């Protein structure tokens, strides 16, 4: 029985090592980098800047349990209810 296990392990190792004996594939030759002129970006006007979002006002409800929101019938209602606790 020990000889059978030894031969099985030896055969498995021989099969796994055949993958390492293959010649490596040649990588594709990289194309030379083409130089492009650097374009200066135009300054953005004030109106194009995104407006700053208001900070979230943390309420005392943040520490309360919002599990009663899970009793709502739809996911949308659950989300709207739970947002009050953020």
Give a verbal description of the structure:
The protein starts with a helix and ends with a helix. It contains 2 helices and no strands. It is flat and about 75 Å long. It has helices at residues 2-17, 75-83. By secondary structure, the protein is mostly helical.
Topology, pairings included?
Blueprint: H1 2-17, H2 75-83
What is the structure about, briefly put?
The protein is mostly helical and 86 residues long.
SS strand fraction = under 5%
* Helix and strand pattern: HH
How would a crystallographer describe the biggest sheet? Answer: none
Number of strands: 0
Radius of gyration over alpha carbons? 33 Å
Distance between the termini: 66 Å
Approximate shape: flat
Q: DSSP helix count?
A: 2
Q: What is the percent of helical residues? A: 25-40%
Give me some keywords for this one.
about 90 residues, mainly alpha, 2 helices, about 30% helix
């Amino acid at each position: 029985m020990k000889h059978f296990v030894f031969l099985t392990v030896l055969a498995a190792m021989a099969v796994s090592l055949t993958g390492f004996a293959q010649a490596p594939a040649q990588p594709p030759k990289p194309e030379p980098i083409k130089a492009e002129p650097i374009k200066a970006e135009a300054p953005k006007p004030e109106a194009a800047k995104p407006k700053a979002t208001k900070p979230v006002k943390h309420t005392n409800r943040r520490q309360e349990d919002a599990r009663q929101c899970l009793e709502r019938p739809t996911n949308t209602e659950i989300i709207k209810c739970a947002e009050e606790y953020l």
